[in-house]
Design a protein that fits this description.
CATH topology of the largest domain: Zincin-like
Number of strands: 11
Helix content: 25-40%
Mean pLDDT: 88
Order of helices and strands: HEEEEHHHEEEEHEEEHHH
Bound molecules: zinc ion
Largest sheet: 4 strands, mixed
Number of domains: 3
Structural class: alpha/beta
CATH superfamily of the largest domain: Metalloproteases ("zincins"), catalytic domain
Radius of gyration: 22 Å
CATH class of the largest domain: Alpha Beta
Length: about 250
């Protein structure tokens, strides 16, 4: 109890973190948020979990001015290490978006609202209607595409592994790409539709395999590898590239 009270007193004595600010990196605005940590000995800058900006953790006594000086002095480092990975990308006319691992250009002719169309030859996604709603509408369309691909991939694996699932949904989880509940419901991140198809197929194989093995033991991995030949490459891709997928489109909690 004393420990807990002591800890609360310590947290209370932490000065408030500075307000978030916007840093300009290569002419692009980058949101920088701050937080304090009593155990932190030096300032630490890292990518925000949702990939849309930076978070700086400050020791207890670091002033706002010091924090800002450190941020400005870190611009080169940010440019080199993070800049291409962290700018939130709203869907709009001319913006490039990865779809099944290939880059497509968004075209917004305006006019009346209609269905999103794919021009396969020009690698263009045509989003008609009010420009103000393009970000939301294309996100919704990508979610439908994700559900379609993930349903197909999950059924394929379930048949091959001789298991059944009860439901399938797509969401916008920030920390995992898929999950499988005890009620045998599969849930995936819609952002997998942005990744190469072999990555989506692997995540489906992984979650469907959990219907047989609710663990990550050797039998589980044998099952995954038997039904997904690209598991190794896909896992590597998820580790190295997938974070970038979080910057696209509309975020839903
Ligand atoms: Zn798993």
């Amino acid at each position: 109890m004393i420990n807990l009270l002591g800890r609360i007193a310590m947290l209370r004595s932490l000065p408030a973190a500075p307000e978030p600010c916007v840093l300009e990196v290569d002419g692009r605005p980058v949101k920088l948020s701050f937080k304090r940590n009593v155990r932190c000995k030096r300032m630490i800058m890292r990518l925000a979990k949702d990939g849309t900006g930076l978070v700086m953790t400050l020791p207890k006594r670091t002033s706002q001015a010091e924090a800002h000086r450190f941020a400005l002095a870190s611009k080169d480092w940010i440019r080199k290490n993070l800049a291409n990975r962290m700018v939130a990308t709203e869907f709009g006319d001319g913006v490039l978006v990865p779809l099944r691992g290939e880059l497509w250009r968004i075209s917004c002719p305006g006019g009346r609202r209609g269905l999103v169309q794919q021009d396969h030859e020009a690698k263009t996604l045509i989003v008609p209607g009010d420009l103000a709603h393009v970000n939301r509408r294309l996100t919704d369309w990508l979610k439908q595409q994700a559900l379609q691909d993930l349903t197909r991939a999950s059924h394929h694996c379930a048949t091959a592994m001789n298991v059944k699932f009860s439901a399938i949904t797509v969401r916008d989880q920030s920390s995992r790409w898929g999950s499988c509940s005890h009620a045998r419901a599969l849930s995936y991140s819609w952002r997998l539709i942005l990744a190469p198809s072999y990555v989506l197929d692997y995540v489906a194989a992984h979650e469907v395999a959990h219907l047989q093995e609710m663990n990550h033991g050797p039998r589980f991995w044998r099952l995954v590898l038997t039904h997904c030949k690209t598991a190794k490459q896909a896992r590597h891709w998820l580790k190295t590239e997938a974070r970038d997928l979080h910057r696209y489109g509309v975020k839903t909690p």
